[in-house]
Structures are given as C-alpha cells and as structure tokens.
Amino acid sequence: MGFDGKLAIQTSIKLDGGLFLHLFKYKLHLITNICPQKIQSVDLVDGQWGTVGSVITCNFTKDGEKKFVKVIIEAVDEEWRGITYKVIEGDLLVAYNTFKLTLSVDSNRELDNVVTWTIEYEKKNESVPEPSTFLDFCFSATQEIERHYMLIPN
C-alpha cells in the first residue's frame, strides 16, 4: 500500500501570467532578489533554463529551517502554460520517496490570471505529514512576486 498524494492550490494574480511563468522557466535565479527570506540561492547545474532535463539546485528557508533541493525540469508545456520540477536530491526526500511541483498559469481570464501550484508526492510512511505547508510556501511566494512586479505595498 502506497502513501501517494496530490495537493493543489490556486490563486488569482493581476500580474501578467506570461511574465509570471517566464520567471519560473527562464529567470528562476532572480527569485532570490524577490523573496530573499524564503529563497537564498537558485543555481543552474546542468542544461539550460526552461529546458526539459535541466538540473537546478535551490537553498531555501521554510518554517524557519534551511533546506536544500536539487530538481530536474521534468516537463515544460506551452499549451497548458506550465512547468514541472521533480526533486531528485535533498531534504524533501528524507520524508518523501517522490516529490513533484507543477506550476501552471491560466491567462484566459478577463481580469486576472490564475496560478495553480500542484504537488504530487509519495510519503515514506503514514506518519509523514502531507506537504500542505509547502503549498502555503508557494502561495506566499506567489504573492511576494506579484507585489514586487506590480509594486503593491505589503
């Protein structure tokens, strides 16, 4: 019996959806300037930004703890405007056998764009909590990015 799960969160942003997605595909390293309390470093280890198979490392702080992950870009889809990162190394794999994070942006709205963060995971055992706080982390980062680009005060 597995401990697979899937969680998602959506939020509307006024920021151009293409710009938001572009940041996560091609300019992810800039997020350290936008959310320095959350994300301390993002480095391209292998490949090219926004390309399937590329490897990226990230040092971040979540719930007051320093964390490290190495991810591979597993999918980039222009049609559904999304990108999937699969964790291949790091702190998240202590509790989870697999951990994937997908970002998609629906820009087919009149006023707002809808950002969806989805986590697919397999817990190592039943006592491991669902990674809902990681979704909260993504939601909060989304808000910070929007404030940064839209110059909205906190």
Low-pLDDT residue intervals, each spanning 5 or more residues: none
Whole-number average pLDDT? 92
The total of helices stands at 4
Number of strands: 7
- Content of β-strand: over 45%
Q: Provide the structure class.
A: alpha+beta
List the strand order in the largest sheet.
1-7-6-5-4-3-2
Round the Cα radius of gyration to an integer and report it. 15 Å
- H/E element string? EHHEEEEHEEH
Helix content: 10-25%
The largest sheet is: 7 strands, antiparallel
Domain Bet v I/Major latex protein: 2-152
GO biological process, one term: defense response
Pfam families: Bet_v_1 (PF00407)
Protein name: Kirola
Task: Give the SSE map.
Blueprint (H helix, E strand, L loop, with lengths): L3 E10 L3 H10 L4 H4 L4 E8 L8 E8 L2 E13 L4 E9 L1 H4 E11 L6 E11 L8 H19 L4
Antiparallel strand pairs: 1-7, 2-3, 3-4, 4-5, 5-6, 6-7
